[in-house]
Structure formats: C-alpha cells, structure tokens
Sequence to fold (423 residues):
Amino acid sequence: MPIIFSGTKLPQSEIKEIQSEIYADWGTFRERDVNIQENHKSGTEVYESKVTVANKAYSSDAVTSDANAKAEVDRSAVNLVKTMFSDVIDYNVLLDTRFEKSMKQGAFNTVSTEFDNAVLQYITPAISEDMEEMTWDGATTAQKAAIAALTPGAGQGSISAAAQVLVAAMPTRLVNSLPATILYNDSQSKDTPGAGLGDYKKVAATAYDATTIADEYAKMFNGIEPKVLADKLNPPCIYAPLADRQLMLTANNSKGAASNQNFLFADKTLHSKCYYNGIEVKFKPLVGFHIISPAKYLILLFDLINDMNILETGKVANGADQYYYKNVQAFATWCTNQRYITLYGG
Amino acid sequence: MSGKKEVKKETPAQIQAKKNAAEIKANGFLNPFSPGVTYKAYLATLKKDETVAENLKDKISPAKLKWLLNDLQNLKN
Fold:
C-alpha cells in the first residue's frame, strides 16, 4: 500500500544549540586597562599640576619671588555624553519557529523563554563590545570637522595628513574615542591651552606586515619620552590594533636562521600577555593608531561603569504586545599629561 | 594721552613663521620635519616646478622622504 503524503516536508529535528555571534571582550573595562573614573553625572573637572623649581646661587638675604619657579594647576572641564541602547522586541514574529515551544499556554503569551536565554542574553555583551569600540575608534561629527580643519605637517606639533585621513574614516559616534581625544582637545594643560591639536608626541606611521612590524615597534619605542620609561610607578603600555597579535606571532615564527623573537609572549597560549622591550602590549580595537602611554593618562569618565550591564526591560504601554529594553550610559574620554603620550600615526 | 607704546603680542603662527625664516637662513632650506612646520609653509618654499624629492635630496633620510611623499599624497586626497 503506497503512503501518500501531500504538503510541505519539514526537517523534524534541530540542533539544540543556537550558534551565537562572537561578542569580543577586550578587557578595557573589566581589567581596567586605562584610568576609569566613575561618579560623574553630566560633566567634571580634571585638574593637572606641574611644579617647576629653580636652583640658584646661595644668598643669606630674604627669600624673594622667583619667576623661574612655578607651581601650576590647570583645570579642564570635560562633559560626559549621555547615550542609550534600546529597541522594541515583538515576540509575535517568533510564532512558527522553535521558540513557540517555550511560550506559555494562552494566546496572550508570546514571550519565549528560550529566545530570552539564547538570544536576548547577548544584548549586554553586545553593548559591552560596542562600548569598547567606542573607546578606541570613532569620533563625533564635530570632532571630525575640527581635526580635518587642522593644518597638517610632518614634524612634531602638527598632525600628519594620514591621521586626518584615518579620523575621517572613523565611524561617526556620539562620543570621541581616545585617539580622537588625544589628537584634538580643549585641555587647559597644553602648551597652547584650549581647543586645538593635542600635545601628544608623534611617531610617523608606515603600513607594515609581519616582516616589518618589528621596525615599526622600534620606532614607537624610540619615540617614547625617556622620562616615561623611567617612571616605575606608572609604566607605559602599548595599545595596539587587534591584528598586531597575529603579525607578531607570525613574525616570531618566521622561517630562517635569522629569525628574531622581537615580541615576548608570557606563555604559549594564544591569549598570552605580550611584551615589547619590557612594555606590555594591550590589543584593542584601534584602527591605524597605536597609543603608547601610562594607563593613568588615558581616562574614561563614567557615571557608573556598571551602567553597561544594566538593562531595563518591560512591556510597551497601552496594551501593545511588545517589549522594550533600554540601557543608558554617561561616558567621555579624556587624556592628561599629553606631552608624555606617544601617538603612532598621529 | 599716555606715552606708552602698545606692544602687540605675536600669534603662534607669526612666531612659527619667524622660526621657519631663521631655519631657511641657517640651512638654506626648510625641513618639513622641524617642529611646527606645516605642509603649507614648507610647500611655499619650493621653487617653481621644483619637486619635494628634488628639494630634499640628500637632506633627509630616504625613509623619511618616502614617508613624507606618502603623507603629502594623503593631503592631495
């Protein structure tokens, strides 16, 4: 007797696990790879001090004012930017899918616990990833315009044309990334206080691959102020683009008798800590730029860093069968002691 | 009427222009890698039809010249 079936044939099983996207965790917030400051609402003041003393010939006369000795304190105002991540979720679109099984009985009930557990739980990691990217790459429209308006040049004290190209290509965001802030800011502690080019130390950048990465790191290392290297309390870090790890490992494993291990990895694992000439290299989602600075001078200002993990959820009002989520942040980047920050590519 | 003469403070651009002029006088050319020298100021020192490579031949390292020519290309784009 033949079996007669009419209708659409559907697969009768499914892979239990729902494969998720990779939500990268580059550790800036968790490991506090930079100077994270909390408890600021809409804005804050950053103070920087600098004391200059003057040695002179001894005199038994009364001490008088010395124009060469200075105790400077500069105050810069930094505004935090309030931003949010939010969306509306309509579970009705999940009808006719595997998620139906986890909806409670009753036509009103469309919330899928499986969907919540398998998909929505990644909202927070996705926010965290976005915040990391915001920290290291991107600039506001105003910042992009200000940087584009700078007069470029090759030497110290001017921005390279390549840096202007990199900033123009940065994603436009509501908050400036650290490289964008280093390049242009209105700190009162700069040689020329107020809005303008940052006081960073510039190292000319050149495109590199695994065979030339060591040359570029040598340039970065030589560009660091010796005083920064001598500061045992605040050792500098090299904040490098993510792809550098691959290039470094490839460079270290290059074939041939003349191969040098320029980059020291603390262990043999893929995620090992990395050092160049004793300076820890921290891999961040930077694009084109490298920042060499003590962590202390790179500041992230927050109202509360845990805001990143706080997700308000609820049902949309007025009888709608939709749900919302909302996450609110107050955030800004800032840099201090700019003359000691080296910006490769700046 | 006071007899005091008003002293105008030089702008950073004026100070830099003086430095550039002093450098040209001392070295016979303006090094674009000198602090504060802008491309605009440097390119203005080139003679008619003179290229950057010609102007800086044997004056800066080949690596620096290569980088400079690349960066000037960015300027054009």
Remarks:
- Chain B has one domain: 12-76.
- The mean pLDDT of chain B is 90.
